[in-house]
Amino acid sequence: MIQTDLNCDMGESYGSYSLGNDQEVIKYVSSVNIACGYHAGDPATMDTTVQLAIKHNVRIGAHPGLPDLNGFGRREMKLTPSEVYQLIVYQVGALNGFVQANGAKLNHVKPHGALYNMAAKDKTIANAIAEAIYHLDTSLTLFGLSNSELTKAGEKLGIPVAHEVFADRTYQADGSLTPRSEPNAVLTSEEAAMTQIDQMIKHQTVTTVDGKTIPLKADTICIHGDNPKAVGFAKQLYQHFISSGIKLGNLS
After folding, report:
1. Where are the bilayer-spanning segments (predicted)?
2. I need a surface site. Which of 59, 61, 191, 240 has the fewest CB within 10 A?
């Protein structure tokens, strides 16, 4: 039986603003990435989401992003390596406080949005993120775009790394995600997403927007909790895994 991990970004509500349907989506995933208060989230949401993850016995990850609430962390910023390092330490430490207070253990760290995409291509940023995780806890798994500079940085330091792929995003010839500013960045057809996931998991390849087939590692699959159709898609993907003989479980 093939085994994989299905992760989802959660805890992205803030103050009186509610985003996503975490309580339903969490039923169909094996890992969650919880916003740490910079691109989204706040102390109350972080605490509540950690408790929700414990209730459903899913692995808990920190989802640190750029300090950009208005842009939801999806706008690039010019940062020094020291600033990137400090952003990661600060946010992961904040979430881990709630994890420990609730008697659980932090499993992984996955950068969010623009920070994630910047680290996929920029060695300097990738190294700063990996070093922050290394200094915080060498048992934490670094989630990064498959075959990216971020996963390479983590592997170089010897920390656990999970190569991440996306169920609902399209890929460029260099293995990067198609920018959200382009019209074909997201797969709107659930059938197309299922086909892509099968290819990624079973063959460790993906078909790019220009029709090429490129290799990629697929340790964990991301779905987006802020999508209006997130619950239905998560449930359909979960059922697809069951019918295809694919088990959700530990990354190892």
Report:
1. none
2. 191
